[in-house]
Fold each of these.
Amino acid sequence: MMDAALAVAEDGLAAGELPIGAVVLLGDEIVGRAYTQERALRRRIVHADLLAMDAADRVLGWRKREHPLRLAVTLEPCVMCLGAAMTLGVTEIVYALESPGDGAAVLGTWRPETGDLPGYAVPVLVGGVRRAEARELFRRYCDQAPDSGMRRWARTLLDRPN
């Protein structure tokens, strides 16, 4: 599933966006895919994972799911996207590159055991899957993007050891 997320991130990079791609799978079927579209849409709440989950939600609606819902994304989800994954019922998030400034994986250790909100469990988070390939996409983005706050932020992801 990370192959598909990396391919979507490559599409985003080709479109001049940050190279963040995401896919949502129901079992082995991709039911949502997207790349971040902040530049094209001139909006901030258009993260790849959020857009892919929105697409999956439109496909799935309220229907009963025969298989687990999983998310693969090339960058660690932020708190907003982790919350959306919980709401959608994603059971596992696999991501490539850590985002220490705004990533929410640390919240993956919080797992309330109450029955008050069934379906709102924190997904299992697995990081570092194909990290080098995601980091290379960000390196290419930094090499070609004009100087901006987003480029400077992306550069911080390259300077981390891993």
Amino acid sequence: MTFATWNLLFTGMISSILLLNVVQWGIYRERIYGLYTLYMLAWLIYFSLRIDEINTYVSGGVWYWVKAAVPMLAYLVYFDFANWLIRLRERLPLLFRLFQLAKVVIGFYIGGISVLCFEIIPWNEAMYNTLHTLMRLLMVGLALYGVWKIGRLNGMVPRYVALGSSFLLIGGVVSMATTGLNFTPQNPHSFLAAPLTYFMFGIMAELICFTLVLGYRQRRGAIKSAIVEQKLAREREQRQREQVEAELITEKLQQQMSAVQMMALQTQLNPHFLFNSLNSLSSLIADEPTKAERFVDEMSSVYRYLLRNNDYELTTLQSELAFIDSYYHLLKTRYGQGIDLTKTIDTQFLLYKLPPLTLQLLVENAVKHNVVSAEQPLRIQLSTNENGWLTVSNTLQRRPANRVNSTQKGLLNILSKYQLLGQAAPTVGETADAFIVSLPLIH
């Protein structure tokens, strides 16, 4: 096989890889495929113009310029290609800076070669050969260092790049050596007799490595995308499960709160409470009509609040305190000096929230389970601390056990509501003379 035939075969193979890469560039729209296309295009132009039949149509100056400058243009593209493929700026900053410096040197070199080849100054073949040789030796040195540094990186991509660059380096060195030694094979017409053939072998092996590494990179990207998609799908499923669980908890909370609120309504609307309230109202109408009018207003406020807050999970402390004022007025009218309510509330917590009717249940429990009389008044105190907790305490003066059966449903329902809301649990305790319940206010 003659070198001309081999060159045609070689350029055909390069063209096939080039067309394949152009298709991939159109599909993936990544800059690295564009750089790889330019890199192959530079070699394709270079070796196409080195065919003897074409040399007859190319002037000597142009031929010398192609021989010296086009490979350097390919190296310029290679520097950017390697940087994008391996992220040299991040992983090998010193080599990246050397590549940037080499770009500047190549720019001056191409400028000097252009001045000589296009006879801006008189043609000097010795100067041309000297510049060409020095530049090739500089590229060999940079390639040796680059292959060594890239080959030490972890991962398949750097190893493929180092291997391909090694093939190019070996082919270039063998080509330079056979040219300098004037190697004469047994068959001078064989393509193996041409020093440029070994450079072609190196380039072909390099392009095969680069094509493989781009395919590997694309497959790895597809696998990563699939993994990410699976992870996102799992996260979506997890969020959906959490949403369903939250909806179930909310539904359970609403059912629980409806039951608690219904219990409170039933407690307040039971005939005994209603009879006592109406009896107190009857006494006031005849003797103190002004107080009777206010009693009716407070009584309507109590029942209005009870009915209105059935559909709410939370209410403000300010609303609860206003409701307790109305409720306490009813109790005060009935028990007189037998009951006393004091409030020590920091105003910064008035807009904090708690489940509705919580205070009513606690005040009602205090009245229900303790002696209430003028001789032994029941004292109830509402207060807040600096941590945003509300404390409801009352003097401990229990009624006889056989008169009141405590089921503690009120306290258990309050604890259940806080648990369903995901809040800290209220605390219940007592001392020798006081019963104390502390509730976290919800900000």
